[in-house]
Write a structure and sequence with these properties.
Layout (H helix, E strand, L loop, with lengths): L1 H11 L9 E5 L5 H8 L5 E5 L5 H6 L5 E6 L2 H11 L7 E5 L12 E7 L5 H7 E12 L5 H7 L11 H12 L3 E13 L2 H10 L9 E2 L4 E2 L5 H11 E2 L2 E14 L2
Parallel strand pairs: 2-3, 2-5, 3-4, 5-6
Antiparallel strand pairs: 1-7, 6-11, 7-11, 8-9, 10-11
C-alpha cells in the first residue's frame, strides 16, 4: 500500500486544494493549528510529518526557533521548496523522509506534528524531548461514510477498528504519559460536481490506493459515474453538495 501511496503523490506533486471551491461548517471546536500554537514557544524545535507541498506548514505553523518539515515524496518536497519562496522569513527546512523510517537523534524535538499521514508512535516517542508533545489530526474510518457506503469501498472501509482508536492504542503502547483524543465533525459544501470530483481524485477517500494499472504500474483512480451522480442527487443542498467529514485530534505528552 505504501508503494502505491508513494506513486500516487509523486504523480500529484502538490497538496494544494485552493482551486477546489467549498465552504465548511464546523461542529467541533478542536483546531489542529491552534493547538500547535498553544504548545509552541519562541525557541521551539518542531518536526512536521507528512508536510506534502508545505502549503499549510508555511502559512499556518507558528514562528518558532526552527521547523523541519518532511514528506516521503521527493516531488512534494520539490514543490514545498518552490512554495517557500513566498515565505522568505519562515524558519523552515524541507526534507525527504519516510515517517516509518525516521532519521533524527533521540530526544531532539519539542513538538512533533502529523496531519493526515501515517505515523510510527515508537519512533516519534524516541525523537521527542522529555515533556515533548505529539499533535495529530487524522481522517477517521467513518469520514465520508455515506459516500463510502454507496461505492462500497474507501479509506479504512473494512477496518475492524477506527483509525483514531488504532493511533490511540499505538501511542499509549509507545509510552506516552498523557493522551487526549478528540472527535472532529465538520460538514463541507462543494460548489459544483467538479469541485467534489477534484477532491476525490486527489485524496484516498474512495480508492484507498487500491487500484493499480498493472500494464504500466501507475495508480489509477476509479470513480463510477453512475454512483457519483447518485451521491450528487441525494446530497445537493442549498449550500452546495454536502460531505460529512469525521476527523480526530490527538495530543500526547512524553513524560
Amino acid at each position: 500500500m505504501q508503494e502505491l501511496e508513494y506513486k500516487r503523490y509523486e504523480e500529484i506533486g502538490n497538496w494544494d486544494f485552493s482551486d477546489i471551491k467549498y465552504t465548511v461548517r464546523q461542529e467541533s471546536s478542536w483546531d489542529f493549528y491552534k493547538e500547535i500554537s498553544k504548545y509552541s514557544k519562541p525557541n521551539s524545535l518542531i518536526l512536521d510529518l507528512g508536510t506534502g507541498g508545505g502549503e499549510k506548514a508555511l502559512s499556518l505553523l507558528p514562528d518558532v526557533g526552527m521547523i523541519i518539515a518532511t514528506d516521503f515524496s521527493p516531488k512534494m518536497i520539490e514543490t514545498a521548496n518552490i512554495n517557500k519562496s513566498n515565505f522568505p522569513d519562515k524558519n523552515i527546512k524541507f526534507v525527504t523522509m519516510d515517517n516509518l523510517n525516521m532519521k533524527f537523534p533521540n530526544n531532539l524535538f519539542d513538538i512533533i506534528t502529523a496531519r493526515h499521514t501515517i505515523i510510527d508512535a515508537v519512533q516519534i516517542y524516541n525523537c521527542l524531548s522529555n515533556n515533548g508533545v505529539l499533535i495529530i489530526e487524522g481522517v477517521d474510518k467513518y469520514d465520508c461514510w455515506e459516500l463510502k457506503k454507496l461505492f462500497n469501498r474507501g479509506q479504512a472501509f473494512n477496518d475492524s477498528i477506527s483509525i483514531s482508536q488504532k493511533d490511540y492504542n499505538d501511542i499509549k503502547n509507545a509510552g506516552f504519559s498523557k493522551i487526549d483524543l478528540h472527535e472532529i465533525i465538520q460538514y463541507e459544501y462543494y460548489e459544483t460536481e467538479n469541485d467534489l470530483l477534484a477532491l476525490l481524485l486527489k485524496t484516498p477517500i474512495l480508492d484507498d490506493f487500491s487500484e493499480l494499472d498493472t500494464s504500466n504500474n501507475i495508480h489509477q483512480t476509479r470513480i463510477e459515474q453512475d454512483l457519483f451522480n447518485q451521491y450528487i442527487s441525494e446530497h445537493t443542498t442549498d449550500k452546495g453538495i454536502e460531505l460529512k467529514r469525521v476527523l480526530y485530534g490527538i495530543i500526547a505528552t512524553k513524560g
